[in-house]
Automatic annotation (TrEMBL):
Spans through the membrane: none
Functional summary from the UniProt entry: May be involved in the formation or repair of [Fe-S] clusters present in iron-sulfur proteins.
Protein name: NifU family protein
rRNA-binding listed as a keyword: no
InterPro entries hit by this protein: FSCA_dom_sf, NIF_FeS_clus_asmbl_NifU_C, Rieske_2Fe-2S, Rieske_2Fe-2S_sf
Keywords: 2Fe-2S, Iron, Iron-sulfur, Metal-binding
GO biological process, alphabetically ordered: iron-sulfur cluster assembly
């Protein structure tokens, strides 16, 4: 069954991802006025949230199914519906939809993911398939993209368990498998990447990290600006089809297939996804192990 198009967001939508942190900062600042001031500030926030929750509930009561579906596919509105327990989709549907949204990115790295089940205690059990097993960096970025999508769509998920596709009984706790992900990446909005033309290659400095971005047809891709063969920058690299050639050692890498090159050499892919309508890249923390 065809799903309605997701509403297009603007670059300003990204600010709402940090709204909760800003509210908490303001609440904390009220603590300087003493316990009484802090409690009044908390009560004010609770009253405002309850008021908007009641308003949203009435809107949904008058909305037809098509409008309710469109509201549920808007990232900002969906987050508010989740806060008030008003989202029209159950947790299984939301997680499945989230995985569908990142599936094209996973496919560009030779991978895929299946939702096996949502357990009664709130654990999402997933199975990764076909990832670039010779590329640890690629596996890490896939896990980061999937975890981010699941957490945003279903905040009530308490843990993510990954089952090896070839060994169905081998369950790995998310805390173990994704420990590197939790400490090694942060999302940065980069709306200018949307302006890349097909076949164009450009370099960017994003939060102190040198990034090489390119576009193959309609697909934008991002890699760390580092050639694993000559250990030099890729500045000046040329893209022919999906083949990116290092301008110094002339080694060619397939940017559509997770940056695969000759033998075990490969570029380091960076997740590049649309979040709240804005292209965003997940960057490793400087100094984190490769």
């Amino acid at each position: 069954m065809a799903r309605p198009d997701r509403p297009q967001g603007s670059a300003d939508d990204a600010q709402w991802r940090t709204a909760g942190d800003r509210i908490q900062t303001l609440l904390d600042s009220c603590a300087t006025g003493g316990p009484g001031a802090y409690e009044r500030a908390q009560e004010l926030v609770r009253e405002v949230i309850a008021l908007y929750g009641a308003g949203l509930e009435r809107i949904l009561a008058h909305a037809d199914p098509q409008l309710a579906e469109r509201l549920a596919t808007d990232d900002l509105v969906a987050s508010l519906l989740l806060v008030h327990g008003l989202h029209p989709h159950d947790v299984h549907r939301r997680v499945a939809d989230a995985l569908d949204r990142v599936r094209p990115y996973l496919g560009s790295h030779g991978g895929d993911v299946d939702l096996l089940e949502i357990t009664p205690d709130g654990a999402a059990r997933l199975a990764f398939r076909g990832t670039c097993k010779t590329c640890p960096s690629s596996a890490m970025t896939l896990e980061l993209a999937v975890e981010d999508a699941v957490r945003a769509a279903a905040p009530e998920i308490c843990s993510i368990e990954v089952v090896a596709a070839t060994e169905p009984t081998n369950v790995i706790a998310a805390e173990s498998l994704l420990s590197r992900v939790h400490s090694s990446g942060s999302w940065q909005p980069v709306p200018e990447l949307a302006e890349l033309a097909p076949g164009e290659v450009a370099g960017f400095s994003i939060a102190g990290v040198s990034v090489l971005a390119c576009r193959v047809d309609e697909r934008a891709l991002a890699y760390r600006d580092h050639c694993p063969v000559c250990l030099d920058t890729l500045a000046g690299a040329r893209l022919t089809g999906s083949s990116l050639q290092c301008p110094r050692c002339t080694t060619q890498f397939d940017v559509v297939q997770a940056g695969a090159g000759p033998s075990a050499a490969h570029l380091e892919p960076l997740p590049l996804l649309t979040r709240d309508g804005v292209l965003s890249v997940a960057l490793p923390v400087l100094g984190a192990p490769a």
